[in-house]
Amino acid sequence: MTQHIFDKALALHHSDIRVGHFTGMTSPDYWNMVGPFGGTTAAVVLQSVLRHPDLLGAPIALTVNYAAAIEAGAFDVQATAVRTNRSTQHWTVQITQAGASGAPQVTTTATVVTAVRRDTWSLNDLPMPAVPGPGQVERMTIGPKGVAWIERYDMRPVRGTVPTQWDGSGDHSETLLWLRDIDPRPLDFPALAAMSDMFFPRVWLRRAKPVPAGTVSITTYFHADAAQLAEVGTGYLLGRAVGQQFQNGFFDQSAQLWSEAGALLATSNQIVYFKE
Predict the structure, then answer these.
(1) Which of 6, 87, 96, 123 could in theory staple to 116 by disulfide, Cβ–Cβ 3.0 to 4.6 A?
(2) How far apart are CA 147 and CA 181, in angstroms?
(3) Are 217 and 66 in contact (CB under 8 A)?
(4) Residue 200 CA to chain centroid, in angstroms?
């Protein structure tokens, strides 16, 4: 069976340096403007924990801080379990690359929390918005130039697509869209982490102005277990993203991802810098 292109981008190799140390390689297929797609970097972080021999449970929270752009080429990942309790486990993760002097430079820091889930009372207090099904919405076929990762996804905007006129006339920051891998791939936690970061900067929509912007930090909360993700399979997810406050060069945006059946799978919040 041919390996999916996303799995190639997440390929990590154990090293003999220490437990939890991996090496990887950036993927041109998921390249952004100045480095890898941030969602792919988040997925790599999560993958290092999921492949760690001491893993307990499944992910419930992931925070990724983008300290510097990862350059094209090899990188190192170190995942460390800093505390293991009866049902939760706390991790720190760092991605480094060799700098000009040859010394390792930190590009990414992260924390991950995994847990053993148990059956309890459950309720979805954030129902999926009523929207046309993915088959009734046209696929987005045009994206920013030089952004390869967009071509790896089937995105079908319902509302709030990338502005077609950059005239400063924006009046809201909400996007609703259906999405999935362009080449079918069963949903798992790394893919869900990547999809939580695939919304273009809210400031573009709110201002209708293509200002420079980039994620500084993103936190994703996973509300589904592996069995629920398996039920989604290769189906679409409905994503919603909205900005909340734009001020002094930074803004935050929240996002949610539901299955076609209406199950809330993940929520995320991120802080993003922007320039005039």
Answers:
(1) 87
(2) 16
(3) yes
(4) 12
Q: CB neighbours (10 Å) of residue 212?
A: 12
Q: How many residues are recorded in the chain?
A: 276
Q: How far apart are CA 144 and CA 263, in angstroms?
A: 31
**Does the global pTM surpass 0.85?**
yes
Q: Which domains does the chain have, with CATH numbers?
A: 5-115 (2.40.160.210), 134-274 (2.40.160.210)
User: Rounded to an integer, what distance in angstroms lies between the CA atom of residue 251 and that of residue 135?
Assistant: 33
In this structure, the strands spanning 74-84 and 88-98 are: antiparallel
Residue 57, SS3?
A: coil
Burial of 83 (0-12, 13-18, 19+ CB in 10 A): exposed
Tokens 């200002």 locate to: 211
Cα(240)–Cα(254) distance, rounded to whole angstroms? 8
DSSP state at residue 126 = S
Taking only the tens of pLDDT, the chain with its 276 residues reads 689 999 999 999 998 889 999 999 999 999 998 899 999 999 999 999 999 999 999 999 999 999 999 999 999 999 999 999 999 999 999 999 998 788 899 999 999 999 999 999 999 999 999 999 999 999 988 666 678 999 999 999 999 998 888 999 999 999 999 999 999 999 999 999 999 999 999 999 999 999 999 999 999 999 999 999 999 999 999 999 999 999 999 999 999 999 999 999 999 999 999 998
- CA dihedral (276, 108, 228, 232) positive or negative: positive
Rounded to 5°, the CA angle 5-69-42 comes to: 50
